[in-house]
Amino acid sequence: MIGSLRGIVILRNDPYIFLEVGGVGYKVLVSGSVFASTKQGEKLALFTYTHVREDALDLYGFPSAEDLELFERLIGVSGVGPKTAMNVFSLNKRDNIIEAIVNADVDFFTSVPRLGRKNAQKIIIELKQKFGSSQELDLSEKDKKQHADVVRALESLGFSPGEAREAIVAVKDKGGTTQELVRLALQYLGKR
Predict the structure, then answer these.
(1) pTM over 0.85
(2) Fold of 4-62
(3) What is the pLDDT of residues 95-135, one digit of tens each?
(4) What's the CA gap between 181 and 168, in Å, rounded?
């Protein structure tokens, strides 16, 4: 199994890049954002997932080990194959995907080509425990919107989505309005 590659981009053919490593060219399927950010002739390092089928051997490349880990969790969900999981990455960043899982945002996943409502719900059900407590996920529509607003506000102030979610979980029972939650979350994050 090939776990990572480091080499020179010798050809770009959307959605594939051809990476030359030690005189051998590897055809690697990458997300749209990775494809857009690479240039022919530049050095590139990718963490890879090797998918073996009866008739093919495919490589999927990711810029970070964390992206690869999330990809592997997505394909671990029954009904979600590697191409569908890569479509999720092509439309969104890792933090946004995790946020959609935590917030049980089915619409986020159904916007991905080849991913229906049933499989979107499976992703959320099977992965939500990996990224947040079930208590934090059982929210009314109003709470989901409010928490998403708080996350966006904290992100605009330079906090990561993970830090924002951690703060929301810590203070969600203490505040009522979005402004109060942002204030309490900032106090919480300032004490860490």
Answers:
(1) no
(2) OB fold (Dihydrolipoamide Acetyltransferase, E2P) (2.40.50)
(3) 889 988 988 889 999 999 889 999 999 999 888 877 764 44
(4) 7
